[in-house]
Amino acid sequence: MSPHDTVLEPTGDLLALLRALCDLPSVSGSEAAIADAVEAALAPYPHLEVLRDGDAVVARTSLGRAARVIVAGHLDTVPIAGNVPTTLVGTGDDAQVWGRGTVDMKGGVAIQVALAAALTAPTRDVTWVFYDNEEVDAALSGLGRIVRNHPDWLVADFAVLGEPTNAGLEGGCNGTLRVEVRVPGVAAHSARSWMGTNAVHGAGEVLRRLTAYAATDVEVEGLVYREGMNAVAIRGGVAGNVIPDECVVTVNYRFAPSRSVDEAIAHVRELFDGFEVTVTDASGGARPGLDAPAAADFAAAVLTFTGGAPAPKFGWTDVARFAELGIPAVNFGPGDPLLAHKDDEHCAVRQLHLCHDALRSWLTT
Amino acid sequence: MSPHDTVLEPTGDLLALLRALCDLPSVSGSEAAIADAVEAALAPYPHLEVLRDGDAVVARTSLGRAARVIVAGHLDTVPIAGNVPTTLVGTGDDAQVWGRGTVDMKGGVAIQVALAAALTAPTRDVTWVFYDNEEVDAALSGLGRIVRNHPDWLVADFAVLGEPTNAGLEGGCNGTLRVEVRVPGVAAHSARSWMGTNAVHGAGEVLRRLTAYAATDVEVEGLVYREGMNAVAIRGGVAGNVIPDECVVTVNYRFAPSRSVDEAIAHVRELFDGFEVTVTDASGGARPGLDAPAAADFAAAVLTFTGGAPAPKFGWTDVARFAELGIPAVNFGPGDPLLAHKDDEHCAVRQLHLCHDALRSWLTT
User: Fold this and answer.
1) Based on C-alpha coordinates, what's the Rg of chain B?
2) What EC number(s) does this enzyme carry (chains A, B) (predicted)?
3) Which of A207, A227, B137, B211 is the most exposed, having the fewest neighbouring CB atoms within 10 Å of its CB?
């Protein structure tokens, strides 16, 4: 059976559903098969209106409830690393499912597919959102595309993003900024290096400032956000016998949600004063917003169930995009976020069921 | 007329010969047409035995003279930069010929072709050597290939290499060593950078040592060789949201001919103590050897003619390969070596004639 023939069984075993979703490789940019499978799985349910935009699928109820919530998750993964198809280690509640996507974030997606089908009469109207291209440049995001093409699909009072939180609740997220710091030089034959100016040597000062930089912890609404300032790439040099005339250091600044993007840019420009700094990518963070009534209500409901406590989300997630739309949003999903993108990515089956049951309970009471 | 139909006129105008050689693009690896043209130009002369190996051509006299000299030059150039065909600026002795190869080193090659044809009875037997692939990895060198395939073609008492020296005489050459200095790290998501170890930040120490390094001037047999220690490339980083787990700095050490390759390697390993150092390319230098009788004789003859003085050669040239074969060798050719490989490469026509006349005088008296 080719992956394109995969049939998802929304009302069957949740672990089997998760594994079927993981075993459909869906690296960013190649989500057609998994989007087809999700659309086909939900289309038969009369309580759902199923919509499609590119490789994003939206399924929503229209029961006239007083409130509407979005439950959203991305369909794509980072590149597979020989860890597809999934394997199962252990049995019962101690079992772990290993493989790409088991943490980031097919667990959340499996719970969405199962509950979208099962909950014919949720206590809140629900818009289930499945989208493509989350793991790549913000400009490619499927959720961003829906915002542009169909803003009416994303009207809600509250949003839950099924990103991995170890079944706890993670509020808000750090912002992320990427800049290129450019160090100029003058090319020359390396046999007569004194005729040139070595740009790679010049980049030593950029690395010195990065190494000396002390990242800060910032408390926002009771949660402590840990920042980071890191070179994520460096490149320079044209040939083995030429003094490099340019060296470019790509720096990624993860900043607390109390700072605006503009403040973050100013901070980075100040740090690299004297060098040319070009912003290549910027996404603001999101304040935790756990004092919003809808969020407090959700936190109380699910955390009683899972026993977790609210914590800050360090990684940037699409809660920031919902925050921009004025929709309070939290992260809540199975899997240890530290295992995301790792070759040994794996998820406790217990967390999968816990999150499923907590979300089901909240949407039915 | 396609370049493959180019006919060289060895006994015609020297400048026209130089321009014809330059206008035949012959970037390293694509020397077939120019080798064909040189072979065809010299084959008709009964005083020459013309030999071929790949895209290298050797033409030699066998007059039973007491001494044999090699006059050698490479046929290839670095990639052209819109500077082919050549242009002529100015007139007469003030003229300059502009274009790829005018300096490095079609001037020397033109002189060889002209004199090989013209000198039917030189005072020393001459082996004229034209070879391919000098501007690329040492392993590809056409001269090195002749050494392996036909060592008997390269028997001589002295060698002149027509590399550009501004019509002066440059003795010996610096050695060159390339190493990769590897800085390890531990990958992590850049949103949780404290889980990893940033290899690019770690490379700051490598750049600090390079910047602090004081290159020395080394006197060898009366000539002062200026050394250089430079990063020629740096690379690190796998994705915009990952802490780099490796950074590699490529370092090029140009060292005086008084040091052996092993001493150069030991010096670089000591400089980067604590880091993994991998040697990727190493060629020893050559002592000037101007005290050898053949070299002293040549220097006296040509420098009286051109008015130049012996100087050190900073760049690595094939005089080092001749030195390895036990053949004293010097660089002597038209063109400013600082213009080699440059987009504005150009040569004074006066120097072309000076070098031609000096070499002719030496080989006929």
Assistant:
1) 23
2) 3.5.1.18
3) B137
Q: Which residue has the tokens 């100087």?
A: B311
| ipTM of the complex as predicted | 0.76
CATH number of the structural domain B175-283: 3.30.70.360
- Chain-wide mean pLDDT for chain B? 93
Nearest to B82 by CA among B120, B25, B139: B25
- Strand segments, DSSP code E, in chain A are 49-53, 56-60, 68-74, 87-89, 96-98, 125-131, 158-161, 169-171, 175-184, 217-220, 223-226, 228-236, 246-255, 276-283, 310-312, 329-331, 346-348
Q: Does domain B3-173+286-364 have CATH number 3.20.20.70?
A: no
* DSSP letter string, A322-346: HHHTT--EEE--SS-GGGTTSTT-E
| pLDDT, tens digit, 9 for 90 and up, residues A70-105 | 999 999 999 888 889 999 999 987 899 999 999 999
pLDDT category of residue A4 using cuts at 50, 70 and 90: low
Domain boundaries, chain A: 3-173+286-364, 175-283
Calculate the alpha carbon distances from B352 to B24, B95, B163, B347, B364 in Å: 19, 11, 12, 8, 18
Residue-wise pLDDT tens digits, B101-126: 999 999 999 999 999 999 999 999 99
Which residues of chain A make contact with B174, given a CB cutoff of 8 A? 191
Q: Does A315 contact B192 at a Cβ distance shorter than 8 Å? A: yes
Please say if A134 is a catalytic residue: yes
Which of A135, A193, A331, A339 best probes binding to B when mutated, by most B CB atoms within 10 angstroms?
A193
Go through chain B and tell me how many residues it has: 365
